[in-house]
Specification:
Chain B: Belongs to the binding-protein-dependent transport system permease family. FecCD subfamily. Chain B: One of its GO terms (molecular function) is transmembrane transporter activity. Chain B: One of its GO terms (biological process) is siderophore-iron import into cell. Chain B: It comes from Planococcus maitriensis. Chain B: This is Iron ABC transporter permease. The complex is a heterodimer of chains A (about 250) and B (about 325). Chain A is α/β, with parallel strands linked by helices. Helices cover about 35% and strands about 25% of the residues of chain A. Chain A has 10 helices and 12 strands. A 6-stranded mixed sheet of chain A has the order 6-7-8-3-9-10, sandwiched between helices. Chain A has a 4-stranded antiparallel sheet with strand order 2-1-4-5. In chain A, strands 11-12 form a two-stranded antiparallel ribbon. In chain A, helix 3 crosses helix 5, helix 3 runs parallel beside helix 6 and helix 5 packs antiparallel against helix 6. Chain A is globular and about 55 Å long. The N and C termini of chain A lie far apart (about 35 Å). Chain B is mostly helical and about 325 residues long. Chain B has a single domain, classed as ABC transporter involved in vitamin B12 uptake, BtuC, CATH 1.10.3470. Chain B is built from 14 helices and no strands. Chain B starts with a helix and ends with a helix. In chain B, about 40% of the residues are buried. The chains are: A alpha/beta (about 250), B mainly alpha (about 325). At the A-B interface, helix 2, strand 6 and helix 3 of A face helix 9 and helix 10 of B.
Chain lengths: ~250, ~325
């Protein structure tokens, strides 16, 4: 379990994340939703130690993250941010191999190679594993990065808007893979999402943020309700039930 | 395995260049000419390796392949120091005449400057690296302007001495200094070599590097200081030559197309040995000392730099 305790982040005098406490349960997909500037990405960055919190603490399985060595942390929690700027030209396989860095420090042994093979297999990238990343489409590149995170083999996988700039087909593909990671491999996935319908269909729990505070936190069915959404987005959003999916029809509200 | 073959080809070329320089036209002068040439070759190898290493590391840290560590202002600081010494103490003073004293003094001043500079800048967390570089540029320009001002006032004869220091030269390298530099460079690069794998991860960007368990901020700090010290040693040994690193680092990226720092750095080091030793041979035998190596390097480097800029702007 990841326990977030009273995290606060200030940019100048503005509180971007204000006294946030959340529990993230094992073996589930938890989605962070909320309007732009709600502090979702900042919160995720602090949980994954990309950003230092001003106050508060994060406990991973009851260990304070500040007391964990960076390398130990990277064997338990992985984070994938939305922009993946790179200065070097890598093939998919080389990128995925970097996922083993916390274990192998760059010298891959047989077991590492096996994990890399599995991760590539899992993301269905086998026949293009020797292509260069800059030759790939956005969806393929995103899958390559997720494969790297899978090769990292952490219990907790945090993703910051992984569906950004992806079309419907690739978005669905990625979300299905994340679901499989949880259901088949027992991972815990935390994801920042913009499209509440993806959150509704794929996540077990939803945490809604607004102006740096948690406004809603609960199982998906409880959050995907017109009243709750009104509070989060200030919009009247009708909800339609279709094939066991709760779909928010927000386009003309 | 192809990278290893390429490395061997380069090593062969470097050995050939060294052999040519050492034995060409020797006329049996094994006692006199050979040791003197040997010291020069040795100095070129050391400078080449130090600058290649510092430049590749610096470019990885800054995520920018058209920067050189000279942007930190160390070259200008070296020139300022030499100008100040000659201006206030005169060219006959021990700090100018005695090469060892001058060498150690230069290194000390540059290293202390770099440490103070980083100490001040790293006090605040998450200071963006470009801010640091910007300050480096401003300080470099400032040092340069002060040097120019003093050089204008200086006695013309004394200015000759200053001018002599303005260009890197391997023609009168002191043998003892070469040994001292060798010691420092071997120790520093030896200690830093195990960071190569972490540097590979660093080129994936900060977020990915931190995700993979690299202590990003500490590594960047350590590597910046290392680059500064290596540059300081190379500059104190032969004069300002940092621009050279830009050429060899980029040639190495193009030649190897690898993300592995151990290969790229080794490649850049050997390329710089080829360029320096080969270039020095050309200076001595084709131009018969009518020009200096650093003039040629700056000319070729400048042309190559423009080519890189055009290439980068086209790829966007």
């Amino acid at each position: 379990m990841i326990q977030v305790r009273e995290l606060t982040k200030l940019y100048g005098k503005k509180q971007v994340v204000e006294n946030v406490s959340v529990d993230i349960r094992r073996g589930q997909i938890t989605s962070f939703i909320g309007p732009n500037g709600a502090g979702k990405s900042t919160l995720l960055s602090m949980v994954s130690r990309l950003l230092d919190a001003d106050t508060g603490e994060v406990l991973i399985d009851k260990t304070n993250t500040k007391k964990m060595k960076s390398n130990e942390f990277s064997k338990r929690v992985s984070i994938l941010k939305q922009s993946n700027f790179m200065n070097v030209r890598l093939t998919i396989r080389e990128l995925v191999s970097f996922g083993r860095f916390p274990y192998s420090k760059g010298r891959l042994n047989e077991e590492d190679e096996k994990m890399v093979d599995q991760a590539i297999e899992y993301m269905d990238l086998g026949d293009m594993q020797h292509s260069y990343l800059d030759e790939l489409s956005g969806g393929q590149r995103q899958r390559a990065f997720i494969a790297m995170v899978i090769a990292q083999d952490t219990d907790y996988v945090l993703l910051d808007e992984p569906l950004n700039n992806l079309d419907m087909k690739h978005s669905v593909q990625i979300m299905k893979i994340l679901r499989r990671l949880v259901d088949e491999l027992g991972k815990t996935v935390v994801i920042v999402l913009h499209d509440i319908n993806f959150a509704s269909v794929y996540s077990d729990r939803i945490v809604a943020l607004k102006n740096g505070r948690v406004v809603k936190d609960g199982p998906t069915e409880e959050i995907i309700q017109s009243a709750a959404l009104k509070e989060i987005y200030d919009m009247d959003i009708p909800i339609q039930q279709m094939n066991n999916c709760r779909i928010c029809v927000y386009f003309n509200s | 395995m192809r990278d290893v073959h390429k490395l061997w080809i380069l090593i062969g070329l470097a050995a050939a260049a060294c052999g040519l320089y050492l034995f060409d036209n020797l006329n049996g002068s094994f006692d006199y000419a050979l040791p003197r040439r040997g010291v020069k070759v040795f100095a070129m190898v050391l400078t080449g390796v130090a600058i290649a290493y510092a430049t590749v590391v610096f470019q990885t840290i800054t995520h920018n392949r058209i920067l050189t560590p000279s942007i930190m202002g160390l070259d200008s600081l070296y020139m300022l120091l030499q100008t100040l010494l000659i201006f206030f103490l005169g060219s006959g003073h021990i700090t100018i005449i005695n090469k060892q004293v001058n060498f150690l003094l230069s290194i000390a001043v540059m290293v202390i400057f770099a440490l103070l500079f980083y100490k001040l800048l790293f006090k605040k967390d998450n200071q963006p690296i470009y801010f640091l570089l910007l300050i480096g540029i401003i300080l470099g320009t400032f040092f340069g302007s002060v040097s120019t001002f003093l050089q204008v006032l200086i006695d013309p004869n004394e200015f000759q001495i200053v001018q002599d220091r303005m260009f890197a030269s391997f023609n009168n390298v002191n043998a003892d200094l070469v040994w001292t530099s060798l010691f420092f460079i071997v120790v520093l690069i030896g200690l830093a070599w195990r960071n190569n794998a972490s540097l590979d991860v660093l080129s994936l960007g900060r977020d990915t590097a931190v995700n993979l368990g690299v202590g990003y901020d500490a590594l960047v700090k350590k590597m910046l200081i290392l680059a500064a010290v290596l540059i300081a040693i190379a500059t104190a040994l032969v004069g300002p030559i940092t621009f050279f690193g830009l050429i060899v680092a980029n040639l190495s990226y193009q030649f190897f197309k690898s993300y592995k720092h151990s290969i790229v750095i080794a490649g850049a080091s050997i390329i710089s040995i080829i360029a320096l030793v080969g270039g020095q041979w050309v200076v001595e035998h084709v131009f018969t000392f009518n020009t200096t190596l650093s003039v040629i390097i700056n000319f070729i480097g400048g042309v190559y730099f423009i080519y890189l800029l055009l290439k980068e702007s086209r790829s966007k």
